[in-house]
């Protein structure tokens, strides 16, 4: 990264983010995203994911420095600082985040592909539980899981939805994935599995007509799926920037010691 990186500003449409953007008007010599070395995303975690997905879809991946004007801001940096913004960005710690690639085939035979930075979830569409076959690297590991659903989470996403359903927190750099059931009914005591990120995970929906299932890659949903395959997309790594001492790894550590 250059000593003085060219910065582009992208802003969430919320009132809080737009107000903060006005305050940052003179903080840098802003350039269009296509000309920038770093994209500064002003908003919340959801908006940051939108920005990253837009880059993946366009094939123009650049480092992103998030500034929190949302609710949680787990993936973001603080708004206030005594240091100039350009200096903060130039000295920020780089964290590489590798997304998942989901390929979902519907009951009608259509195929859809999407990336997930946090997780891919399979979720029941009706009041009836989903029935799923679970395979890893081509071998069926569970012939039938009856549950509200199941997910595959990355280390970066392990503190999000995955943690809410009692999945494990994965340290960055662990090269692991969390396979976590959502409200399992049978087998009732199955807590999921931790897999190497080289693993390919496949799900087949049982009784798909009677028990329809949707597949969701972060914010992208495919309904009435028949089969879903998930693998790490190593050739689409993303870079997040964090102020020193407040990086994503430290935040993941902190989550594990909350009482």
How many structural domains? 2
Using the CA coordinates, give the radius of gyration.
Answer: 20 Å
Unreliable runs: none
* Main sheet summary: 11 strands, antiparallel
The H-and-E topology, N to C, reads as: EHEHEHEEEEEEHEEEEEEEH
Percentage beta strand = 35-45%
- Going by CATH, what is the homologous superfamily of the largest domain? Probable inorganic polyphosphate/atp-NAD kinase, domain 2
Q: What is the overall number of helices?
A: 5
SS content category: alpha+beta
The level 1 CATH classification of the largest domain is: Mainly Beta
What do the pLDDT scores average to? Answer: 93
Shape: elongated
Spatial gap, N to C terminus: 39 Å
Annotated CATH architecture of the largest domain: Sandwich
Number of strands: 16
Fraction of residues in helix: 10-25%
**CATH fold description of the largest domain:** Tumour Suppressor Smad4
Notes on the protein architecture:
With 259 residues, the chain is an alpha+beta fold. It folds into two domains: 7-98 and 237-256, Rossmann fold (3-Layer(aba) Sandwich); 100-234, Tumour Suppressor Smad4, CATH 2.60.200.30. 16% of the residues lie in helices and 40% in strands. The strands form two sheets. Strands 5, 6, 7, 8, 9, 10, 11, 12, 13, 14 and 15 form an eleven-stranded antiparallel sheet that branches. A hairpin with a 2-residue loop joins strand 8 (130-136) and strand 9 (139-153).
